Amino acid sequence: MDATTLLTTPSMTVSEFRCDAGPDDTPFAECRTGHSIAYVRAGSFGCQCRAGFFELVAGSMLVGAPGEEYTCTHEHVSGDVCLSFFLSEDLVDALGGRRDIWQVGATPPLPELMVLGELAQTAAGGNSDLGLDEVGQILAARFVDVVSGKARKQTTPTTRDRRRAVEAALWIDANSHAEVDLEQAARQAGLSPFHFLRLFSAVLGVTPHQYLVRSRLRHAARLLSDDDIAVTDIAYDVGFGDLSNFVRTFHRAAGVSPTKFRQASKGKRKILQEQLALS
Fold first, then answer.
1. Facing residues of 38 across strands?
2. pLDDT for 92-141, tens place per residue?
3. Residue 276 clears pLDDT 50, i.e. is over it
4. What are the residues whose beta carbons fall under 8 Å from the beta carbon of 119, sequence distance 6 or more?
5. What beta strand segments (E) does the chain contain?
């Protein structure tokens, strides 16, 4: 089995697992040391645990609980790919819900979880404005809600909550050129990452990472319009660690490449007129 760690924070670790085991391979048992959810992206496998035996296919989720033993089999097909989220105890406490929901063993392909699992994969590939840590926490919260059968209560932000969110947004914008993650922003607000994510989104209508990316895009648009700095330099100056990611993200937002946006800002109206005709 090949394992690739995609993200490590105090709240969670996200890894991709690729298994090439088949019907002729001997099943092996694993013991979980913490809470986890693994979204099956491709392939299939069976799993025997205390909750029973489950056949998992693309869209299913394997649920891990501390001290539980799991034996996986590949009786029908060879191989599977899973996106796994290993959660800290503090995050599990923040998620709430009954502890026994973590002993269900697995979930079938549920639409409420499948769409978030695919969103997480998109975020892992750098093709979403959402952060992988944000989607992981949203997915974990949705899992708790779905399995427990209880909708999470919507709370009305207080004046203090709103001030916290606004101050956090100002801090994110001022530091958007640097590496900023959910944990850092939550510490600035004096909240746990899970509660900060909920609060920020409720008050401002976007997640912290979405706001971070949009701050970077805003600064990039200004530099493209006002200066003759090379596009590559702008990408790194505003906080994008990868030129191709910057070009892709900017094009998704503006409808044109950074180079064409600069040309339009210099008076080439035909470029923007073409975009208006296409929209």
1. 62, 84
2. 999 998 889 999 999 999 999 999 999 999 999 888 889 999 999 999 99
3. no
4. 128, 130, 135, 139
5. 2-8, 12-19, 28-31, 35-49, 52-57, 61-64, 69-73, 80-87, 106-107
